Amino acid sequence: MSLQSITERLHAAEARAGRAPGSVTLIAVSKVQPPERVEAVLAAGQRIFGENRVQEAQGRWPDFQARYEGISLHLIGPLQSNKARAAMGMVDAIHSVDRVKLAETLARLADEIGRCPELFLQVNTGEEPQKAGVLPGEADALVARCRALSLPVAGLMCIPPADEDPAPHFRLLGEIAARNGLSGLSMGMSEDFETAVALGATHVRVGSAIFGTRVAPV
Ligand SMILES: *Cc1c(COP(=O)(O)O)cnc(C)c1O
């Protein structure tokens, strides 16, 4: 478990970028990790966790939440509309809003429930056919639609193509956010979170570098 070394690297990256210490939110991505690894990271003080699947999160977080105060869950994986209600009851942020239909479902549920998690709109910066996310050219329209629905849009999220330099993707995400007046940037994972911080990330999503290699791929 290397939460401490990742936290130190994050603080160093913040300092190099002239950012205030602790200004970047570290989301510990616990998807698929065995419970004892998650427990060790909880015991070390981490309270913000990322999960990919609503069902997996529902299965194990209530137990941790009964034993540890102040846990905050972020949904970082694709969200099906039929899981939206469960997600909204459980998480403080959703990083994967990528289509108008989902935004409309979230808005309807938010009206009904009386609260809404912080939302990040996922942008498919590499325009990869198999990857979720709105295309860069359609991002402005999705932001506008979410605002018209009074949804709390905190920012944008991306997952750069695995085999490319992530920096141009992080820059593109920053440009789209800036022209839409959005301050949140959810970008950077185990391999590239320091680059992401240098390019303005406000939230980094780090899994294997904290918990170790995932036992099963997701
Ligand atoms: C799995 C995952 C991460 C974490 O990946 P690591 O390379 O293990 O840090 C971050 N973001 C998303 C959307 C993921 O699915």
TrEMBL record:
InterPro entries recorded: Ala_racemase_N (IPR001608), PLP-binding_barrel (IPR029066), PyrdxlP_homeostasis (IPR011078)
Cofactor(s) this protein cannot do without: pyridoxal 5'-phosphate
MF GO annotations: pyridoxal phosphate binding
In-chain residues carrying the UniProt-annotated modification N6-(pyridoxal phosphate)lysine: 31
Cited Pfam families: Ala_racemase_N
Residue span(s) of domain Alanine racemase N-terminal: 3-214
Keyword rRNA-binding attributed: no
Keywords on record: Pyridoxal phosphate
Keyword tRNA processing on entry: no
NCBIfam families: YggS family pyridoxal phosphate-dependent enzyme
Family assignment from sequence similarity: Belongs to the pyridoxal phosphate-binding protein YggS/PROSC family.
Biological function: Pyridoxal 5'-phosphate (PLP)-binding protein, which is involved in PLP homeostasis.
Protein name, UniProt field: Pyridoxal phosphate homeostasis protein
Organism for this UniProt entry: Pararhodobacter aggregans
